[in-house]
Amino acid sequence: MKKNVLIIGAGGVAQVVAHKCAQNNDVLGDIHIASRTKAKCDKIIASVHEKKALKQPGVLEGHALDALDIEATKALIQKTGAEIVINVGTAFLNMSVLRACMDTGVAYIDTAIHEEPGKICETPPWYGNYEWKRAAECEEKGITAILGAGFDPGVVNAYAKLAKDEYLDKVTDVDIVDINAGSHGRYFATNFDPEINFREFTGVVYSWQNGQWQTNKMFEIGKEYDLPVVGKRKAYLCGHDEVHSLAKNMDGADVRFWMGFGDHYINVFTVLKSIGLLSEQPVKLAEGQEVVPLKVVKACLPDPASLAPDYEGKTCIGDYVKGLKDGKEKTVFIYNVADHKEAYEEVGSQGISYTAGVPPVAAAMLIATGEWDVKRMANVEELPPKPFINLLNRIGLPTRIQDENGDRPVSFD
Amino acid sequence: MKKNVLIIGAGGVAQVVAHKCAQNNDVLGDIHIASRTKAKCDKIIASVHEKKALKQPGVLEGHALDALDIEATKALIQKTGAEIVINVGTAFLNMSVLRACMDTGVAYIDTAIHEEPGKICETPPWYGNYEWKRAAECEEKGITAILGAGFDPGVVNAYAKLAKDEYLDKVTDVDIVDINAGSHGRYFATNFDPEINFREFTGVVYSWQNGQWQTNKMFEIGKEYDLPVVGKRKAYLCGHDEVHSLAKNMDGADVRFWMGFGDHYINVFTVLKSIGLLSEQPVKLAEGQEVVPLKVVKACLPDPASLAPDYEGKTCIGDYVKGLKDGKEKTVFIYNVADHKEAYEEVGSQGISYTAGVPPVAAAMLIATGEWDVKRMANVEELPPKPFINLLNRIGLPTRIQDENGDRPVSFD
């Protein structure tokens, strides 16, 4: 039984994580939140108290922390007695926070692949450049490190594994589709940290097809999907974290990631990218100042957390998994539908933050109860999916399936 | 006879000014170029020598200067013996350079209204906020200061005055139309300093109508013009410098400025502006750095001077001046057509820089010969237009007119 959680980060996803940890503090114990700006932690804590989210009386504390500072992070882990760290800070922090966890012997969970500020779209598989280099050491030291345990990556990895285990004899294609049919009423905004969001799309698009990495340009390949609840939506082949682990773990099946974009998003993205404003490389201003354009775009765009009060509509994220069952072709679509307004009412965040923030709490609970406390580094599809899906059903992200037998909930209780 | 010219600035317009001064150094004497970066002056000087532009052997020198430093500017004026300063640096420099000229007793020419970095679209008339406050002192000290002596403002002001003097008994409407039908082959670029260019359009649009200032939004009012050479083009009501002096000097006629924009420009502008990237006000990045977004956009966009080698096509800029002649309604269109490629071949700059850079040299020559050495501050329409138009005909910007008698050159030789 591991107990006591340290949450790294204090954005929209951290808000969800804090609320969900509070709702399950009988399992998780003390809750600590750390961010460079302690005031952001305090705001989240106030929101948790306002919603009376703590299931039972317990510790809920904020801390100022620069999580790039490994020694400071180790000291905070030790001071708080946290045995599980949920890292939902910027993706630039992963390797520092992971190191701090490995050195202090506590469990690590994140929701996105590590990134270095000056690099985008590195050589695939992306996990191989950073996290997986620590796998042997985790195994040796018995460290549980669960990588990419948000929704996508995360729950969609579990869906792929579930399809393989439960519904198909052989998987040939995994097509992950992420549609946000919600509306925030702003001219333009990203649902995640704009810096991380745009960095996903400014480089080359990697997919795993015919046993090798294929490259495309962003918005080069589009496809219309007709999904439950959100209906017909145009989605585009994109690079995304989960492709880089599923390529290894799905017995050679093709793995593609599709994200829905409206014409307005594509136009704004195209203008910004064409001018060079999405670049992660610094430019020199006439006055001599060196600035990363993407960071300025981020500063100009709305804080994703600020979208929550006005956000309406649904998200639909799931996996079309195709293969053979009893010698015949079969496709299942395993998915979740989330609602922006319901998310806001429950935890004060919009639906995208909700879908990203609930799963790492489920992962933490499975570590706390021992089911996922695997004492090694693992991507989500390397872990048993059923307890994860059952738990998500209970804590806010129900799973459904569509196949030749219709559309129905998925549960293994 | 005033002699010896100091050019402030070393961008695309300064390049034209230097070449044209060189071509007329029998009238203008020594030529000095000053910029923060002396290497940019040296590059212009090399280009002048390469084209063998100096009419007769003479001084052509570059100097490092921060023209916001009034004492340094005064020292350079004295050291060089310049009696005419042509200020084609950024519009933020005007008041410093003008002060240096007033203190040293030399003539001043500029091509745009003074601007303060943190302010855009101030209360009209814009000249009243800065330059005109120095008019009495110029008069008292006998300083010749010619404001806005580029093409627009500048030549178009002379066209308005010419229409009033020569072709109409009473002027009711001055509609200045600026169409660049050229193509630079880049995704997006501005023809002038992007910072100054965008600052023209991010605020309210002022026009002078029915004896008062009228405000509109940018791109709110569009109109199709059918112009000589460039044909049918959509132009939009914009704020622009010349409206702010012509409103005073055209006996109460309506004064509007129209600039041609393609849909692509409008789309890019709208995206950048809507996101806040054209703001002149600093934003704070997540890391704490303070940055003016517009300066980052400037750094990302092509240097306007770099467009010249590939620029093709024509510009057409002129004045529709409407009024009464012999009791009947009459409209004249007085205009110039310039060619990007010809400009580049002659002086190494594109056509927009050419139309902006030739007129201040004509003004300098008219000061040198005494015709415009008026010993006071003046906007161009307050000076005799004929010698200016005659000189422009000779040095590269021929004037034509369209009216009920057809389309023909304008000359008073």
Automatic annotation (TrEMBL), chains A, B:
It comes from Shinella pollutisoli. InterPro entries: NAD(P)-bd_dom_sf (IPR036291), Sacchrp_dh-like_C (IPR032095), Sacchrp_dh_NADP-bd (IPR005097). Residues 5-146 form the Saccharopine dehydrogenase NADP binding domain. This is Saccharopine dehydrogenase family protein. Residues 150-396 form the Saccharopine dehydrogenase-like C-terminal domain. Transmembrane segments: none annotated.
